[in-house]
Known about the structure:
The protein contains 8 helices and 3 strands, in the order αααααβββααα. It starts with 20 loop residues before the first helix and ends with a helix. Strands 2-1-3 form a 3-stranded antiparallel β-sheet, with helices on both faces. It has 206 residues and is mainly alpha-helical. The chain has helices spanning 21-43, 53-58, 65-86, 98-108, 111-124, 175-178, 182-189, 195-204; strands at 129-136, 139-146, 162-168. Strand 1 and strand 2 (139-146) form a beta hairpin. Residues 27, 31, 81, 168, 170, 172-173 line the site of manganese (III) ion.
Amino acid sequence: xxxxxxxxxxxxxxxxxxxxxxxxxxxxxxxxxxxxxxxxxxxxxxxxxxxxxxxxxxxxxxxxxxxxxxxxxxxxxxxxxxxxxxxxxxxxxxxxxxxxxxxxxxxxxxxxxxxxxxxxxxxxxxxxxxxxxxxxxxxxxxxxxxxxxxxxxxxxxxxxxxxxxxxxxxxxxxxxxxxxxxxxxxxxxxxxxxxxxxxxxxxxxx
Length: 206
Ligand code: MN3
């Protein structure tokens, strides 16, 4: 079965005023759809059409040379955005709980310090890319990737592991509402993070 756009778990207006409806609609129906279409086009005839996207991008050496860059960019884009939509929710828990809260405190000192360091990685990513909280080698690490690279990509990402939280800092994610003010977008985004989903990723990465 070719890759397909996953269902968005809320309405385009649901994350207002932090993420505006027009940005959500364009981001999902145009940008994410384009990654899906381009991925399916790149995979056609390779025998890799049925490979789940996480496995596909984890080992890009299995992708034919001529298709590798397209799969890295568009498979990464599909995987990253599918992950990202589920990380947001209107009115979700404001902070992590339980083992994840303990692990964040242990790795970064406090939740507030974690947010500062994650925000700095997101602001500091030059051009387009993502900031991540990654479980790698049994510990939590903040990382960032350029373009649509993912911590799942072995041999590509600086920090390879299971993403727990990710933030899209491409201008298409915020420009309509925030223009050049990426720090304002990041500050607003914390209001819509779905910490229950982040906790689920943390547990699954054990
Ligand atoms: Mn995006």
